[in-house]
Amino acid sequence: FGxxxxxxxxxxxxQKLMCYEDNQYYPKxxxxxxxxxxxxxQDGESQLxxxxxxxxxxxxxxxxxxxxYGIDFTVSSKxxxxxxxxxSLNPEYLLLPSRVEASLGQTLCFWGELLEDEGDYRGLxxxxxxxxxxxxxHSFIDLIAEGNFLGNRIFEYESRHKSQGKRLHILVCFExxxxxxxxxxxxxxxxxxxxxxxxxILYVYEQSRLCAxxxxxxxAQIEELGLNxxxxxxxxxxxxxxxxxxxxxxxxxxxxxxxxNEENYRVQxxxxxxxxxxxxxxxxxxLSLVRxxxxxxxxxxLRYLEPGKERLQQLLAMVRASRS
Length: 324
Fold this sequence. Notes:
Layout: H1 2-5, H2 8-11, E1 20-21, E2 24-25, H3 28-31, E3 38-39, E4 48-51, E5 57-65, E6 68-76, H4 97-100, E7 108-113, H5 121-132, E8 141-149, E9 152-159, E10 169-175, H6 181-224, H7 234-273, H8 282-323
Parallel strand pairs: 7-10
Antiparallel strand pairs: 1-2, 3-5, 4-5, 5-6, 8-9, 9-10
């Protein structure tokens, strides 16, 4: 969307990436780097600065974090911004998942320095979110958790869209107690990992639902086989057995991947809760969701599919016997 916003740095970002030459992708340049996250800009640049308007400035930082590519796109204003003007921080609502089309999803972080103490922080957070997203999304998004960072309030919002491609995830932070910039950088450095792991888990679980759906359709077909004494040929049964085993293997892989990322999430969570005068218990809500829903559901799926595997083996044995 660099063309829409007329941001030259975004329009020509490939020319600034170490992994592109003459508009062709060359991954070897990335493999030579050892740090994670890997900054993908050339010549040691840490970020690209740009202007949306005279008041609205921003920066870009494309990166690779292990197996994931992403971009830190930040817009800010040093001028006083009223609620009605907050829309300028998300021009033309371009920072919505449906526009960005990030496969793993995205998180919008809004950090506001208040000019005066605000008694109703929850109401103010709701109002900020309402300005940052279109009205069509207002009825889909909910406040799911609250916390604080060094005495400053934090609100977490998420929409009820099932698809990662549409789901909104927004963090609103209000700075009422002055915080050293290094502390803010430290926080967001850790949150960067936390949200990456969160989105990975959600994405993998979404993929597991698609896999489980296809596997159960095949399971239903297997249950019908042989009931009318008309067996499919041996090759067709073998293909079904192979496909069924693939579904079960993929579900097992999804289960393992979720478990690994859950543990990594816990490690990053421990770093965050170490901040003094802070409350990040809301991060545990997601861990509960992973434990009580995601992992248990995949376990249920695998148990449900087990009889189908045995049924296929029986049918294959029957067909072999009929051919001998």
